[in-house]
Amino acid sequence: MIDPRIDRLAEVLVSHSCRLQPGENVLIEAFDLPEPNLICHLVERAAAAGARPFVSIKNNTVLRSLYRSATLDSAQLTGGFESHVMSQMQAYIGVRGSTNSEEMVDVPGDQLKLVQQHVWKPVHIDLRVAKTKWVVLRYPTPSFAQTARMSTAAFEEFYFNVCTTDYEAMGRNQEPLRELMLATDRVKITGPGTDLEFSIKDIPVITCNGRRNIPDGEVFTAPVRDSLNGVITYNAGSRYQGTIFENVRFEFEKGKIVNATCQGQNKRLNEILDSDEGSRYIGEWSLGCNNHIRHPMLDTLFDEKIGGSLHLTPGNAYETADNGNRSAVHWDLVLIQTPEYGGGEVWFDGQLIRKDGRFLPDALQPLNEGL
User: Fold this and answer.
1) 158 and 172 share one domain
2) Measuring CA to CA, how many Å separate 357 from each of 17, 96, 193, 340, 347?
């Protein structure tokens, strides 16, 4: 039996996110999917649009073995092979399922760094992000539902509702916030354990409404690289490179993270931040505004969109909103400012813009719908 929700999701990905055109090559990369239905729908819809679909199916259990045994030579060869494929693509759709979200937890940090620098960065940061029409998403699995603390059936319903929302309306509602951010110099963020200031002057501002991430719902820019001073404490847990980090706290001086702590994983946290020179600087700052997503579930694609949240990202800046920072790391860490998570404020040039997760200016009221 064909699930119409899967076909609708495939339509969003092909027609809205990637806007596939005749003659374009699209790589569909799938990880740990429990069944192939979505991939089949994507192939058929891409072909119907006149594009040429290519499929790569990967398994995280196999990748764990590859990462644990990787050498410099094998990582460079893998990066070269996958870069050759990616360089021929005009579009990319990445779909990740999960049978075990902890699969990479015992891969040594040095091995993950090797893969990050010689596979992930050249293939995804340098080519896929910079040169293709790309979109990434998760796939609903029992493991994912368990992380979200929901039944499988309830999570599937939530997932498809959120992922196939009206992205055109979302884009219209985000535009006044983009204009306000473009006119802003100084940003101040306050809340429990947080008192941070920085500039976003003359950095482009990007609205996100289903073109790159599914689900979506954020407006992002980047701080002026050396402008951050103060402290931020993130209250949403984050799974990164197989490790879960809680209560991450950064202290900044002239843009650099000079002190980094978290609950029980300080050594691993600082190993990541010492990956390269750019990993202790911030490459992205974003306001989350998808009010269908209310609570973190240890999945960045969902957590960074939470209504009333923000994320401040150590590592690489996107070229579309570039502050010049370059790194193999790009780690979206989330601070939720709704009342149940402790509240907080966002100020633009001395004006209070968002309090306890709710936008205050009249032009931004549509972004509060559903909170």
Assistant:
1) no
2) 27, 29, 16, 10, 12
Q: Which of 194, 263, 284, 204 is nearest to 230 (CA)?
A: 194
Q: Are residues 155 and 185 in the same domain?
A: no
Q: Is the pTM of this model over 0.85?
A: yes
pLDDT of residue 50: 98
Q: Between 4-11 and 37-48, two packed helices, what is the crossing angle to 10 degrees?
A: 50
**Which pLDDT tens digit goes with each residue over 296-346?**
999 999 999 999 999 999 999 999 999 999 999 999 999 999 999 999 999
Domain count, the chain: 2
pLDDT value at 2 more than 80: no
Query: Do 69 and 113 fall into the same domain?
Result: yes
Residues 48 and 179 in one domain: no
Contacts of 210 (CB under 8 A, 6+ apart): 12, 16, 17, 135, 165, 167, 170, 171, 216
Predicted pLDDT at 31 = 96
Cα(323)–Cα(222) distance, rounded to whole angstroms?
A: 6
Domain coverage including residue 354? 167-368
Confidence of residue 1 (pLDDT cuts 50, 70, 90): low
Q: 186 with 310, same domain?
A: yes
- Per-residue pLDDT of 153-164, as tens digits, reads 999 999 999 999
The residue out of 144, 163, 182 marking a domain boundary is 163
The token pair at 208 is 């996100």
pLDDT value of residue 371: 84
CA distance 68 to 202: 43
**Residue 350 backbone phi and psi in degrees, to 5:** 85, 0
* CATH number of the domain encompassing residue 115: 3.40.1830.10
> What are the structure tokens assigned to 63, written together?
């990748």
Helix, coil or strand: residue 219: strand
Do 151 and 68 sit in the same domain of this protein?
A: yes
Q: What is the reported pLDDT for 100?
A: 84
- Is residue 232 located within the same domain as residue 360? yes
